[in-house]
Write the C-alpha cells for this entry.
Amino acid sequence: MIRVATLFWLVLVSATGFAMFGVKYQVQALEDELGRTKRATTAEEHEIRVLDAEWAYLTRPEMLDAMNRRFLSLSPIATKQLHTTAADIPMRPVPPAPVEAAAMVAAAEPPPPPGASPNSPEGVPTLTAALIPVTATSEPPPTQSALRAMPALLERPASAPQLGKAAPVKAVAKPATPHRAKSLDDLIAQIMTSR
Amino acid sequence: MVAVQPFDDNPCRPRHFKPPPCAPVVPEGPARQALETCRSRLFLTSLLFACVFAAVALRIVEVVVLEGGSAQSHMPRFRIPAPPAPARADIVDRNGKLLATTLDTPSVYATPKQILDPADATRKLVKAFPSLKSGDVYAKLTSGKSFVYIKRRLTPREQYEVNQLGIPGVQFQHEERRVYPDGTLTAHVVGYTGIDNSGFAGIERGLDDTLKDRRDPLQLSLDLRIQYVLREELQRVIDDFTAKGAAGLIMDVNTGEVLAMVSLPDFDPNQPGASDPDHPALSFADRMFNRDTLGVYELGSIFKIFTVAMALDYGTSTLASTYDASHPINIGRFTIGDYHGKHRVLSVPEILMYSSNIGAAKMAMAAGGQKQREFLSRLGLLKTPKIEVAEIGSPHYPGKWRDVNVMTIAFGHGISVTPLSFASAAAALVNGGVLRQATLVRQPPGHAPQGQQVLSPKTSEQMRKLMRLVVEHGTGTMAAAPGYVVGGKTGTADKVSGRHYADRKLLSSFVGVFPINDPKYLVLTMVDEPHPNKQSHGYATAGWTVAPATSRTVQRIAPLLGVEPVDESSPEIQRALTVDSLQGKKIEAY
C-alpha cells in the first residue's frame, strides 16, 4: 500500500537529489569559468607588464630627447619665460571690433564706409598676431620649408638628403648609435644573446 | 509499510472497520527478550545516524554561513592554478616611471613523441626563428625523446608568433628575466641582477630581501628626468675636458632624498658584462665603480665650507676675523700656498671667496685639531655613510690628528670621503643645521625624516651668505644661474698617486645649493682628471669645468622641480644674503 506520506517523501528525496546534482554541476561550471577567467587575467597581467616595460622603454628620456630634436626642437624653459605672479602677466591687448559685428554693421548701413569692409586685411592679421604666443627661445621657429618637410621626415630616415636645408632639423641629424636596440623586443633579444 | 497484524485475524471484518487501539500484547519468555534487544539496537543505530547527520548539518552551516562560502574545494579537478607571483618587485622612480621590471621570457620546447608532422613543424619553426637551422630542428623533432628545447628565452613577440603557429607538441616553459628599460641611465643606482634574479649591485643588492618579498613596486626618490639632465651635463664635461670620469648627485636638502645620482663611465644593467661599443678600452671594474657612494676622494677646497662653519660654530672666528695670507706656511716638509693668491690679510668671507688655503689652515689652527675632528665627526664625515645601495666606501683620515693634518684637512687634503657623505654634510650646513641620512627611497610628501641638529641655525645662515658670495664674486661665478640664486663652493684637488700628489692630475668639484636664500636642492658635481681646453683658457679647475655644468643643470632642472625664479637683485633677497662685515666695502673681483 503506497501511502500519501510515503509518496510525499519519495518526491522530496528525488527532488532534493536532482536539485543537489543541478547545483553541483552549476558549481562545477562556475569553477571552470573562474579558472578560465583567472588564467586569462594572469595572461592579461603578463601582457600589461610587457606593455608597461615597452612604454617605459619607448618613453625613456634619451628617446624623447632624440624625438624632440628631430620633430619639435623644444628647448628647456628659460627663466624669462616663467611668470611667477599674476602681476607679471601682461594684460591682454584690446582686440579690434569683431569681424562679424563689423560685417553686420556694414550690411545695415546703406553707404558702407570704405575702410570697414568685412574682409578688411587690417583686422585679421592683428588678431592672429595677438594670438600667437611670443616665443622666447633663442632658436628661430621652424621655417615653412621645415614644416612642409615634417610628414616626409616621419617616413624617411633623418639623413634624407633633401632635409639638409631645414635649419632646426639639421642640428638633430646625429645618427642613431647602431648598437642601441630599437624596441623592447630587440633589447630582450640583446640581453639573451649576451648571456 | 503494510504490517502484519497477528491479532486482527478475523476474516469476516469489513475492510473499513479498524479494531480499537489497544496495548500490544507482548509475549512472555525468550520472545520478549529478543524484542527488547532488537529495540535497543534500533535505538542505538538511530542515535548514531542522528549524530552523523547532525555533524553534516553543522558542517554545512559552518561552510555556508560562518565562513561565508570561502571554503576551498577539495576536488583536484576544480583546483584553480594560482597566478604565478612576480618573482621580484618592480622598481619605479618618484613619478612612477619604470626602472626595473621582471618579464616572462619563456623557453619553447617540444615533445617529439607528440609531433605529428616533424617536417611541417620544422618548416614553421625555422620561419618563426630564422636563427635556427632546419637540419638541427628536424633532428631534434625526430629524436624520439620526450623533451627537447627548441629555443631558450623568447621575446614577447616571438612567443606570440609561436602561439600563432599552433603546432601540437610545442610548448612553453616559464622563466623570468629582469629588464631595465632605461639602461645605462640609472645603472649605478638600480644595479642589476644575476642569472637567478638575485641582486648583484646597487639597490637590487642593497634591498634584495625587500624586493623579493613585496609585490607592489618599490618607489625610489630618484627623478628620471633630473637624472637624465645630470648625466647629460656630466657627459658634456667629460667630452669637453677629455676627463677620465665624473660623478654627480642632486639631493633634497630638507629630506635627504637623492633625486639623481650619476657616476660615469657607467654600464648597461641589461648586459653588465658586455663591453661599451663606444669605449671598448674601459675595464669592467671601472664602469661598475660607483664614484658617488663607493669612491672616496680628497675633495679639496670644497671642504673649506666645513672649516669655516666649524670656526663660526665654535666661535673661534667671526665673519670679521682676519688672517694673514701673504706668505705660504712651511710645516715639516710641506709648503702650503694659495692657488688664487691675493698675498695680503684676508677676512673670513674672503678666505672662502678666493679659496685661500693659507687662510683656511690658519682658521683651523686657531680652532685646534680636537674641535675640527669633533665637528667633522658630528657631520658624519668620519664614519661610513648609510644608503640603500650595496656599494659603500669608508672614509680615510689620519689616526693621529697632528698639526699638519689639521692644516691640510682645513682645505680638504689628507681626508678622503665619499661624495655622498659630503653632500649630506653640506646639506646640513645650509638647511638650518639638521643632518639627515641620505636615502634613495621616496619619503612620503611633506614628511622629513628625523634629523640631528649638528650646528646652530645662525651658523647655517652665515654659511648660506658666504656660499652665495663665492658664486657672486668669488671662484664660482660661472655657476650662477640667473633667477635661481645659486650658492656654492669650488674645489680643485690634486690627485694622490702612490705616496705623492700628482701634478696636473686634478679632481675638480663643485657643491651648489639653490635657491640659497631658502635652500631646497643641492647639486654636487665632480670631474676626474679634466684636461684644459681652448675655451677654458688653459684651466681645468672647478670654476671652469663643473661650475658651468652646475649652472646649466640648475637652469634645466629648476622648472622641473617647481622652483620659481626670483629677481636676484630684489631688496629682500639682497638683504637676506648680504654679509654684514663686508657691507660698504668694495669687493675685489676674483
